[in-house]
Amino acid sequence: MTRQAGLLAIAAIAIAANLVSAKAAETEPPPRVKWSFSGPFGIYDVGQLQRGLKVYNEVCKACHGLKLVSFRNLAEPGGPGLTPAQATAIAADYQVTDGPNEQGEMFQRPARLADRFPSPFPNDAAARVANNGVLPPDLSVIAKARTYERGFPWFVFDMFTQYQEQGVDYLVALLTGYEDAPAGFTMLPGLYYNKYFPGHAIGMPKMLTDGQVAYTDGAPQTADQYAKDITAFLMWAAEPHLDVRKRIGFQVMVFLIVFAGLMYFTKKKVWSAVEGHA
Asked: Which of 10, 56, 85, 254 could make an SS bond with 60 (beta carbons 3.0 to 4.6 A apart)?
């Protein structure tokens, strides 16, 4: 009995330690953000997408690529609304690897509209070396790939409210959630405390500060606004045809409602003759 009691005590201590560790690793749920593209009728804010592109070019592209996005997409309907000339000028600021040339060698040239946003590093190993062993993720679909669990009963309500912005809400919270580590929280060298990141220790330092990027449209030049703008741009990068999808979805719903009404009245018309002879 003594041995069993000792084992039970050890198990209880282990469980308690795990509960404490789990409690310490808990993260706050990201606050809800009001987005122009939320809801069944939401669409992208072109001005916000252009500001987000500016934030990406001036802050994010040094570490993160957009390998699934082509420069020509910037001038396509439903996107940032740039002209082909503006998209060409942005592409020319990037260098891409091409070749081989007549000497059989690869070479660098300015990007063209047909090219995709290049990675800032030649390979993953070089990216890790430049970032203390951390591989910066590609941002092409980050707004869809990163999210958080809402849990019960919220996910039930989400089915009725059509809340689908967990990913973008999380990204805004992540970009603005840097704080000093609380007392007793051990931080390894090269990591930073973020209250919204799982485990709270993140390898990316705080990248956005007030006044960092100059806006010309009168929008607030704050870290919070930068976070919302770059996140909206990344949402467009992950789902560039959102506007079209929602428009077609609405048209389909209208068609189904009209079709159901026609079928109902057709049924009433057909069966009225049968019921009259019954």
From this structure: 56
